[in-house]
Amino acid sequence: MSRLSTPARIALAGLALLAAAVAFGPLLLPADPLKQNLADGLAPPFWMDGAIPGHPLGTDQLGRDLLVRTLAGGRTSLLVGFVAATLACFLGILAGLVAGYLGGIIDRLIMGVGDLWIAFPFLVLAIAAITVVGSSTPVLIVLLTLAGWVTPARVTRALARRLKGEDYVSAAVGFGGGHRYVIARHLLPAVAGANAVIWTFMVGALVLIEGGLSFLGLGVRPPTPSWGTILNDGRDLMETAWWVPLWPGLALTLTVLFVNLLGDGLRRVFDVKESDRA
Amino acid sequence: MATASLKRPDASRARPAVPTWLLWTVAVWAVRLAVTVLGILTLLFALLHLSGDPAAVMVGPGGSAEDLAKVHAQLGLDRPFLDQYLAFLGDVARLDFGDARGTGEAALPAVLAKLPLTLQLVAATLVVSVAVGLPLGVLAAARREGTLGRIIAGAAALGQAIPNFVLGLVLLLVFALWLGWLPSYGSTTPAHTVLPVITLALFTLARVVLLTRAGVIEALSQDFCRAVVAKGGGRSRVLWRHALPNAFPPVLAFLVTDTGYLLSGTVLVEQLYAYDGIGRGLVIAINEQDYPTVQATVFTVAVIVVAVSALGDVLGRVADPRVGRESAG
Amino acid sequence: MGEVIYLSRRRLLQLGGVTALAMAAGCATSSEEDGGDAASTQLVFASTSITNSLDPLIALSSVGTTFTTQVYDPLVDLGAEGKPVPALATAWKQVDDLTVEFTLREGVVFHEGGAFDAAAVVANIERVLSDNPAFAARKGEMGFLKGAEAVDAKTVRVTTSKPDPVLLNRLSRLHIVDPAVFDKDPAKVASGTGPFKVAKYEPNKSIDLEAFTESWRAPETLTSARLIAIPDSGTMTTALRSGEIDAVFGLPPAVAAQLKDFNVQAPPAGSCAILSMIPAVEAKLRDKNVRTALNLAVNKDEFVKEGLSGFGEVPTGQLLQPGYPGYDDSLKGFGFDAAKAKQLLADAGADGITLNIATTALFKQQAEIVAGYLTEVGIKSEVVIQDLATFITSLLKKSEVPLLYWQTDYFDLKDIASVSRFGPQPEGVQSHFENDDYTSLFAESGTEMDPDARAATIREMAGVLNAEAGVVFLAWPKTVYVHPESVDLGLTPNGNASLATSKKKS
């Protein structure tokens, strides 16, 4: 049993800090994330000429404070990104393990649904969803989960099928280990590494998709912020008011980086455990 | 197959030129293709009818409620759902998706005409990602405690976190505006594909690097690699011949999935670079409630995705024979 | 299975790689040459999208007009302040309340060589009146139009089923297509009488235009032009700066305002940005105090100056702009008074009310700004983005959201008749302004043939709408064109791009 590596610990601390900033920052800061003041629109960050006191990171087109908006936006984005990525990986691993381990008709069925899903344009699904059930955070999480489950499912299945042929798994089955036992004890730890990688990707990707969806009318409703929506609002201004997309972009990148490092560290902890056993 | 038999007559007599499992796979995939496409089109049909009213776009915001009701009836949208669905299936069986709104051209040929442009982006993205991603991934795993390994892994982690429209706009500024080397919009010459492919590939490349790295590191800790090292096998031989193949299944599985995402995911770069592929066509068709084009595009993408899945399946068995023999037997 | 695999693993992997490469190479070489390097007399005009059809009966919206203005002509055009001016008809006279007789321009030829005559006009009017659902929106614009008959080769009589005071405005939206291409499908083959003919059309991508020197209004200097679609405004800006395009239409106001080295032309769009208030969704909107409070809550000066980056005018509490029939000089805008708005809301027992705003992605930012103003006076307001089809259904039939942000005039009729949503509505359709006086006045204005009497009626409508605060008046927006100094982009009096009168210095 090895301990968490130093980079992973730093990442964990970083994530905790981000989560705390996002959770408490908007409460402590004087500015209101929804308070607009058009006359102060597109003020640059504090070190540049034309900066407005009280808006250290500048303002967006509607003159809203970007610091507090980025922090408040993190609430939605982290909630949606983490929950949806975790659900998607969970669903994907489950489907992949069952398909890869059992094989046969169940495998074909699950992977068939995966094919169908991946070939289906997400945009159509999203638009139909708004029309039928309207937009809300739970709907958004469900949609993003649905958007993401196929990758972990396919990767897990590919690994599971290979591992099934490995001696130690065959041996476990031979010794009378039940399906559930074999899957939980031998397959699950073995597919954790690849899925940790996928999960970290997915957190970032889903936050971006969330931003794109808000433009379609899904996701959070303006003026409620999220990293994805601020990024999307700022895309027209990349050239002149680059600070609008910068902060949510930076926050997103840091989150993904930390999650990635943490995932890597966790995977190693897993690996060592596995070889100790063997 | 005939040429193969001529070249090696003895072999062909001794065993079939094409292994039975391959034939099986082809048959299974043909059935799967039909079922998947039918499933997708059914789902699509249902969803399109739940979402907005095509009559609304034709009448426009300046129209009246009476016009709306009239056009709705003219388009047959007030007929029972099942009638519409059966008529739709009949048309699909003849590969007739109807005529696109606006131009009035047959929808499927119009989509197929744009398909090569999108396939070009997807294929180039996959080739670049594999050609660059596998070596980088192995390097990152081999030097995972060193600076180089960390830089590669860190860059890959960053690469996938950069929103691709940000990357796309930066590339535009640098290569189209400041350097003036490449065109900023359009889709007619090979030069037009450079920026879209870089924009698309960064994401896929980063994933390939990290998946390869994870697979190789995992293999290096396993007994068979340790055994090779113990027997005195060279380090690079262990890396490339023994550890790298361990990363193939997850990378391959990912690439198969990613092809699907890329096909419908080219939407963003196609929008950004005004690239005239099927992704952009799909967005426009959805906005205009142009059902025939939406259905023809989805059909085309579905067929390709299932075909790629099948190819991935075959490659997966070849790359890892244990899987192939066991499952087909 | 026990079969020995004949195709080796590596072999198959190689095959896969080769196929992928061949596919990439094959695609790359199949591309044709682009007309990217513009000759000095070619002008490249970009907008976020281009028309989805060459048929002027289908080509709607502003991008449709951008195309039709270059290639087609109507019988009459709208000049400054919406006055009808001669186009393919040189003169017209009202025969009776239901009939107008047009004298057609001599010597006009279509791009495909046929002569323009009365028979062509009759054929076009019959075509728009046919029951083709694709023509629904255009047919809707034609109002009471009933038919046409040729008196002689150069005279045609157009009839309506009811007296129609704005028939000429309506006909300015009917572009005359060469009947010779009716059979070839005008959606793909264009033949009009305008200064440019279509050389090549690639849907969603580009339209190549070539000067038609025999046109009655041939281009002054340009020999060719290209209309292209660039959906992303960042890319559009880059292409403008790099010189790949010569003029753009449809940049977001904030982006256009930052292009300081370029010329910006901003003619009035002829419309009014408003919030529709739907009492059927939120009963409190029946209260005039609440409606007035919403009008007072929005700082219109700031909305226009910052929200639209100055590309608009502050409305004077009415839909129509100065110069339009029925504009009322005496009316005043609502001004901005947040304190009074709060007071009115409190009086109405509507403080803390939730009023969401529905709109399309195009107007997201403007709607968000308005939501911000409403929040300031204690109203809870979020923006609900809808896709176009859903929004149009909300607008024309039934909305679930109490406020709708939209721009009244998509018609270019330059007349109150284009704001039909506030006129009489059929059974079961939500009313946007529950006022019987206004509805009956609207109906009256639709058939009143005496211009002065009609203007008086429209003035009366404006008075009612203003007194009752029937809508939230936000802005009279402008259309934004951006081009470099080296380009002289011509505009029609109507505010559309006119390539025939444009110049490009080399």
Task: Explain how this protein is built.
- The complex is a heterotrimer of chains A (278), B (329) and C (506).
- With 278 residues, chain A is an all-alpha fold.
- Chain A has helices at 6-28, 66-102, 104-119, 122-133, 137-148, 150-164, 167-174, 179-216, 227-234, 243-277.
- In chain A, helix 5 packs across helix 8 (179-216).
- Chain A is elongated.
- Chain B starts with a helix and ends with a helix.
- Mean pLDDT of chain B is 79; it is low at 1-13 and 321-329.
- Chain C is of the alpha+beta class and 506 residues long.
- Helix content of chain C is 29%, strand content 21%.
- Chain C has helices spanning 9-29, 61-71, 118-129, 136-141, 167-171, 233-241, 253-258, 288-297, 300-307, 338-347, 364-376, 388-396, 436-447, 451-467; strands at residues 42-47, 76-78, 84-86, 89-96, 99-104, 145-152, 155-160, 196-202, 206-211, 224-229, 247-249, 263-265, 273-277, 312-313, 357-359, 383-385, 403-407, 471-477, 481-483, 487-491, 497-504.
- The interface between B and C is large, with 85 and 79 residues.
Q: How is the main sheet of chain B built?
A: none
What sequence of helices (H) and strands (E) makes up the elements of chain B?
HHHHHHHHHHHHHHH
Spans of at least 5 consecutive residues with low confidence of chain C: 1-39
Mean pLDDT level of chain C: 87
Number of helices of chain C: 14
Corresponding CATH architecture of the largest domain in chain B: Orthogonal Bundle
Q: Can you tell me the number of structural domains of chain B?
A: 2
Shape of chain C: globular
Distance between the termini of chain B: 23 Å
Distance between the termini of chain C: 74 Å
- The total strand number of chain B stands at 0
Q: What is the helix fraction of residues of chain B, given as a range? A: over 70%
Provide a concise account of the structure shown.
By secondary structure, chain A is mainly alpha-helical. Chain A has helices spanning 6-28, 66-102, 104-119, 122-133, 137-148, 150-164, 167-174, 179-216, 227-234, 243-277.
